[in-house]
Amino acid sequence: MENTVIDVEFQNVSKYYGKEKVVDEVNFRINRGEIFVLIGPSGCGKTTTLKMINQLVPHSSGQIFVRGKNVTELDPVELRRSIGYVIQHIGLLPHLTIRDNVNFVLQLQRVPQKKQRERANELIKMIGLPDSYLDRYPHEISGGEQQRVGVARALAADPEILLMDEPFGAVDPLTREQLQNELLRLQKTIKKTMVFVTHDMQEAFKVGNRIGIMRRGQLVTMGTAMDIVNAKDDFVRAFIGREAVFSALDTIPVFQAIIRDCPVIHEGDAIDPADPRFKDWENVFVINQNGHCLGYVSLTDFKAHEKVTTEKLREITSPCLPSDSLKKAIGEMLWGKRAWLPVVTKEGNFEGIVSFQSCVSILALDD
Ligand SMILES: Nc1ncnc2c1ncn2[C@@H]1O[C@H](COP(=O)(O)OP(=O)(O)OP(=O)(O)O)[C@@H](O)[C@H]1O
Ligand SMILES: [Mg+2]
Q1: Shared domain check, 218 and 120
Q2: Would you say residue 303 has pLDDT above 60?
Q3: Does residue 1 lie within any of the structural domains?
Q4: What is the pLDDT of residues 97-138, one digit of tens each?
Q5: C-beta 32 within 6 A of ligand 1
Q6: Which of 149, 178, 179, 316 is buried deepest, with most CB atoms within 10 A?
Q7: pLDDT tens across 330-350, in order?
Q8: For residue 275, what are the domain limits?
């Protein structure tokens, strides 16, 4: 994409602790408004990579650019101010109320009290908690709520970039899913660039626009959910695991798996089952002059050159949109006990079909 603005860029970045290279020649670019997920086993260098972005940890070699500026040439205080940080294990200060935790950075910046009050009210609403929580202490709210407060705190100074280190690590799966949904909803409105660390592949597929997989300090692969499930690397394949592949389907749109060359006829046309265009097909789709799909007919219902009549027309009961997820489409197929679904646009135009087979072939899991 030509107009993409790069918010964070790593060029051959390495980090040594003594002789140990904990981040090894890492390269990536994160686009404005994107959620970039870093994932990998414990100790692979995720937190270190995150902390080099805001220079809480200085890099040993290579170059790091934030919004086009080399971080070594920026004032570290300014840099950190423009980047929100949700630290691993929440890190709320136990002796401060939720309000003071949320406003911690604003207090340091000596933002006027009135502004701070307004911002705290705005943020607590944004993360879906009642106002009254602002006067509580961290031990008086649940773990999931604390994680939300961690996100609110990072957003307080309205940073351009948000770094999140396993922000939903310490909660049960249900709460976690809820927090992920809230994050995605929030992202739609605030449109921040986010770097999100996790070691949960399902979470990565769910929240990430792109995912980078790390191993022993190296970024071994990077790309969309599609790219990741198609990776050939044994480590990556083992790391993803079978269950997470299903989550990946949640982020892959149906249009990637549409079979577009299915046979189509216009309403009122006669059908010849021997027509070579219909070879290998059981059904033919019927469209009107505007390209709207009226239904389909089964070739077995036709003798030679017979007109399509309404009695023979079968209704399309559950079409999917090109933008629906493959997970939704496959769920619908299982629910309806059928192996394919028609794909129809919002305007009613017939695009083709999606089938189990077409989903499998784009995932290329059987090669
Ligand atoms: N201050 C430090 N001094 C020396 N070694 C460090 C320091 N901080 C981190 N390391 C080492 O660097 C490596 C990467 O650590 P990092 O915290 O980035 O891992 P991580 O991928 O975030 O792991 P986790 O999933 O457990 O949070 C580890 O081997 C760790 O022991
Ligand atoms: Mg970590």
Answers
A1: yes
A2: yes
A3: no
A4: 999 999 988 888 888 989 989 989 988 887 788 999 999 999
A5: no
A6: 149
A7: 999 999 888 889 999 988 888
A8: 255-363
Give the Å distance between the CA of 39 and the centre of ligand 2.
10
Domain boundary among 252, 272, 301: 252
Ligand 1 nearest-atom number relative to CA 41: 25
Report the number of distinct structural domains present in the chain: 2
Q: Strands 350-355 and 293-298, how do they pair?
A: unpaired
Ligand 1 geometric centre to CA of 172 (Å): 25
Q: 2: pLDDT confidence band, cut at 50, 70 and 90? A: low
Reference 344, options 328, 323, 330; nearest CA is 323
238 inside domain = yes
Structural domain ending residue among the three candidates 214, 232, 252: 252
Question: Is the beta carbon of 199 within 6 A of some atom in ligand 1?
Answer: yes
Q: What is the CATH number of the domain that holds 353?
A: 3.10.580.10
- Which tens digits make up the pLDDT trace of 3-15? 789 999 999 999 9
At residue 278, the pLDDT reads: 86
Same domain, yes or no, for 214 and 262? no
Mean pLDDT of 212-224: 95
